[in-house]
Design brief:
This protein has 253 residues and is α/β, with parallel strands linked by helices. The protein is 28% helix and 26% strand. It has seven helices and eleven strands. The strands form two sheets. A nine-stranded mixed beta sheet has the order 3-4-2-1-5-6-7-11-8, with helices on both faces. A two-stranded antiparallel sheet has the order 9-10. Helix 4 links the parallel strand 6 and strand 7. The longest helix has 17 residues. The protein is globular, with a radius of gyration of 20 Å. The mean pLDDT is 95. It binds manganese (II) ion. Manganese (II) ion (MN) binds next to strand 5.
Amino acid sequence: MIRILLTNDDGIFSEGLAQCFEALSSIGEVWVFAPDRERSASSHSLTLEHPLRAVEIKNHWYAVSGTPTDCVNLGVLHFMKKNPPSLIVSGINFGINIGDDVTYSGTVSATFEASILGLAGVAISQEMGMEVDLKRTASLAARLILFMHQKELLKEGKIFNINFPKENPKGIRFCNLGKRHYEESIEENVDPRGKKYFWIGGAPLPSKPEKGTDFEALLKGEISITPLHLDLTDYEVLKSCKSLEGEILDILK
Ligand code: MN
């Protein structure tokens, strides 16, 4: 049995979380730590300015007054401390998390925290559409996670971002993150009290996805799996800057 901490960013009452719990319970012992309200696009934020509450709403299900990152921390470092999980699963998120958007994602960020804590992490997101069947996705995700566990892919600190297409998957693709193109726009409007407000928005622009990306996989109706890591270093630029160290030292004299 895999010991699993399950979280999400859609909140503890999300259908995706419930279905994921059901399916994962067949392959492991699952504890749930999820935000008590929706925290989508909360990124990798940690609550340090005020206290956190964790209410056990049923056995091993905790509603946390914080972000997905808070949930992982509370679960691993406190409530499950005596017998910690080896795997953090985050999802099933309503809506895809692909390309550049993973940097906003609370769902994916929970796995970043897993990696920092030396655990394996899997983020699961569902493309929305008329044919979406979360029960089917949860069942496929559990089987996929068990397979990855058996193949020893879910090692300490290793994380994977998985997206399911809206229809019954036509295939599965290991792929890299693509580039998303938005029409960048801020909507300006006036509220009922006559005060201006702004809404960050912008519909995704139709674009031809680059080959080998998660965009392409989903467009083809396939499951996308992208291994991620937390090292944001640009090694190419680093290499080209190294020789400048002496010159910089001179101008700083
Ligand atoms: Mn979400």
